[in-house]
Design brief:
Layout (H helix, E strand, L loop, with lengths): L1 H4 L1 H17 L5 H13 L5 H11 L23 H9 L14 E4 L30 H5 L6 E7 L3 E9 L5 E8 L2 E8 L9 H8 L9 E2 L5 H9 L6 E9 L6 H5 L6 H10 L1 E4 L20 E7 L2 E7 L13 H7 L4 E6 L17 E9 L5 E10 L14 E3 L2 H18 L3 H30 L12 H9 L4 H12 L2 H14 L7 H5 L1
Parallel strand pairs: 7-10, 7-11, 11-12
Antiparallel strand pairs: 1-13, 2-3, 2-6, 3-4, 4-5, 8-9, 9-10, 12-13, 13-14
Helix pairs in contact: 3-13, 8-13
Length: about 525
C-alpha cells in the first residue's frame, strides 16, 4: 500500500540511495549488496528491502553508548577491571585478555623471546587469501562467452532456483551451477552413467536432492550472462578498510584510546611499515569512506595495495579530534564501523576486546614492538575474535614474534583480510548475507522471467512453477515499449530451422537456451 501510494517518491529515494552507494564508494555489506541488486534490476527492489538498507546504514548514533555509573571515570569511557588486576601483577604483561563474560577466543598468547643466538620460528604455511564464496567466479571462468544453457524455476520450499549447465568439450561430463537462496553449488558430473542424457530437473537434483520442481523453463535473454555474473560476483570484495587504534601504556578505556593525538616513534615506524602515507585531498584510489574533497576526515591516512586488493587504514590518531566529545565520535564512526582493527600497543599496554563498544568490530589484532638482543625491531602479535568467528590462517607461530621484514608484512596483511572474510560467517553478518542473497536471487529470477516471457509468451503452472502477483503485474505492464520491441527483434532472429530444432530438443531435455560469444556481441 505504501509502495502503490508513493511510487514516485519511492523511486526517488531508491535513486538517491543508489547514487550515494555508487559514488561514495562505500564498501560496507549493505552498500555493496544494494549496488549489485541495482545492477540486476533497480526497479524490482521492494520497499521493505530499501528500508532495511537505510536502517542498517544509519549507524552513527548506534556507536554512542551510555556506560554504567559504576564503570564511569572522569575522562569518560569505561574502565576494564580485569586490566587493572593484570597491571598490578607486574611484568610480563599479555597483549590481550578475555572479557569477564567471555564471548571471544584468543590466538597467540606466547611471546617469549628465544635465547640469544637462536632464531625465531618461521611459519612455512602458504599465505593464502580466503574467498568469501569459492563459487563466485566459476560462471565467469567456465561459462561466460561459451556455449551453455540457463534455466529458471520456482520451488515451493526453496524459492527461486537458477541452473546453468555446460557440456565440457571432448568429454561426457556436464558442468553445473545451481543457485538458490541458501547458496550456490557447483559440480562436474559424468553423464555416461545415465541411460539417457539428463534433463534440467535431473541435473539440478544431482546438486540439491530436496528440489521439488516438476520442470525448468529456459532463459532466452541476450544479456542473461551479465546478470548472472553480477549476481555471482556481488560477494567479491577487492577493497578492504581496517581500523588502527593506538594504545599507550596503562590505558584501559575506550575514551583514552580514542583521545590519543600524538604518535610514538614506534607507532610511526609501524604505520610506515604497514603502508604508504597519503594525502586524502583528491586521492584517486580506494578511500574507505574517508572524505577526499573537503578534508572533513583528516588530511592524511595510510593506504596500500596487496595482491590485487586496495586497503585503507582508519588510523585513530589521523582522524579528526573533537574537543569536548568524550567518546570522539568523529573517530569512532569510522573505526567502530570496521569489522577488523589493529591495536598497536606501547610496552606495558593490555587490551581487551570489550573496551571498544561496537556492534560491527568482530576481530582485533594486537601488535607490540620489541627489540632483539642485536637491536633489530621485532613485533609481537595476538589475535582475538568473537566466538562465532571461525579460526583463520595463516596460523601464528609459537612464540608469536616476528622480525620486521617483508615476510611479516605479507603475513599481517593476509591475516587481516582473512579475518574480515571469516567474520562474515558470524551470526550478525551471515544473517544479513542470507537476507541480501534472498532478495537478490528473487530480483534476478523476476528479471530473467520478464525478458524470457517476451520471447516465449506467458508461463503456465507446469513450466517450473507459478509467478507471484507482483511479477505477473510487471509482465502485464510490460506489454508495450522496450519489451515489445525486444520480442519483435528476438522473434525475427529465430529462423524456422532453429525453431524446429529447439522444439525437438525441448521434449527431451527442457534445454533450448544457448548463449555464445556471438550472441553476446549481437
Amino acid at each position: 500500500m505504501i509502495y502503490q501510494g508513493g511510487g514516485v517518491l519511492f523511486r526517488f529515494y531508491c535513486l538517491v540511495y543508489y547514487l550515494y552507494a555508487r559514488f561514495a564508494q562505500c564498501t560496507c555489506f549493505f552498500c555493496r549488496a544494494y549496488r549489485a541488486s541495482a545492477q540486476i534490476a533497480m526497479y524490482a527492489v521492494s520497499f521493505q528491502h530499501v528500508c532495511l538498507l537505510f536502517l542498517q546504514c544509519s549507524r552513527l548514533e548506534d556507536q554512542r553508548c551510555v556506560f554504567p555509573s559504576s564503570l564511569k571515570r572522569k575522562g569518560g569511557g569505561v574502565e576494564h577491571p580485569g586490566i587493572h588486576e593484570i597491571l598490578k601483577q607486574g611484568r610480563p604483561f599479555p597483549l590481550l585478555i578475555l572479557p569477564p563474560l567471555g564471548g571471544y577466543w584468543i590466538e597467540g598468547s606466547s611471546h617469549s623471546l628465544p635465547p640469544p643466538g637462536s632464531d625465531l620460528p618461521v611459519s612455512n604455511e602458504q599465505l593464502r587469501i580466503l574467498q568469501s564464496d569459492p563459487t563466485a567466479r566459476l560462471y565467469r571462468k567456465h561459462f561466460l562467452g561459451k556455449e551453455h544453457q540457463n534455466f529458471c524455476a520456482q520451488d515451493p520450499k526453496l524459492g527461486a532456483v537458477i541452473l546453468s549447465s555446460k557440456l565440457e568439450p571432448r568429454t561426457a561430463k556436464v558442468r553445473l551451477i545451481l543457485r538458490t537462496r541458501s547458496g550456490t553449488k557447483h559440480q562436474l558430473t559424468d553423464t555416461s552413467v545415465f541411460p539417457h542424457f539428463p534433463g534440467a530437473v535431473e541435473m539440478a537434483q544431482m546438486l540439491c536432492e530436496e528440489l521439488a520442481v516438476e520442470r525448468f523453463f529456459p532463459v532466452l535473454y541476450l544479456k542473461a550472462s551479465q546478470l548472472l555474473v553480477n549476481f555471482d560476483e556481488h560477494v567479491i570484495n577487492n577493497n578492504f578498510k581496517f581500523g588502527v587504534i593506538y594504545q599507550k601504556t596503562a590505558q584501559v578505556s575506550e575514551a583514552e584510546l580514542f583521545s590519543n593525538t600524538e604518535e610514538s616513534s614506534g607507532f610511526t615506524e609501524f604505520l610506515d611499515f604497514l603502508g604508504e602515507k597519503i594525502n586524502l585531498h583528491n586521492f584517486k584510489g580506494f578511500r574507505g569512506g574517508l572524505d577526499v574533497s573537503h578534508s572533513q576526515t583528516g588530511s592524511e591516512s595510510v593506504y596500500t595495495k596487496f595482491r590485487g586488493h586496495e586497503i585503507m587504514f582508519h588510523v585513530s590518531t589521523k582522524l579528526p579530534y573533537t574537543t569536548g566529545d568524550s567518546q570522539q565520535l568523529q573517530r569512532k564512526r569510522h573505526i567502530g564501523n570496521d569489522i577488523v582493527a589493529i591495536v598497536y600497543q606501547d610496552e606495558g599496554a593490555v587490551f581487551s576486546p570489550d573496551i571498544i563498544t561496537s556492534h560491527f568490530l568482530h576481530c582485533f589484532v594486537a601488535v607490540q614492538s620489541d627489540l632483539s638482543p642485536s637491536g633489530d625491531t621485532l613485533y609481537k602479535v595476538s589475535v582475538t575474535a568473537r566466538n562465532d568467528v571461525p579460526k583463520f590462517g595463516p596460523a601464528l607461530p609459537i612464540p608469536a614474534v616476528f622480525q620486521k621484514n617483508q615476510h611479516f608484512r605479507e603475513f599481517l596483511l593476509t591475516k587481516l583480510i582473512n579475518a574480515e572474510v571469516s567474520c562474515y560467517c558470524a551470526e550478525r553478518f551471515s544473517k544479513l548475507q542470507e537476507r541480501t542473497r534472498a532478495a537478490l536471487i528473487d530480483t534476478l529470477y523476476e528479471e530473467l522471467v520478464l525478458h524470457s516471457q517476451s520471447v516465449l509468451g506467458p508461463l503456465n503452472d507446469k513450466a517450473g512453477g507459478t509467478l507471484d502477483e507482483g511479477t505477473a503485474d510487471k509482465m502485464e505492464n510490460s506489454s508495450s515499449g522496450f519489451l515489445d520491441n525486444f520480442k519483435t527483434f528476438s522473434l525475427a532472429l529465430r529462423s524456422p530451422q532453429r525453431s524446429r530444432d529447439a522444439l525437438s530438443r525441448g521434449c527431451r531435455s527442457s534445454s533450448i537456451a544457448i548463449e555464445s560469444a556471438s550472441d553476446e556481441k549481437r
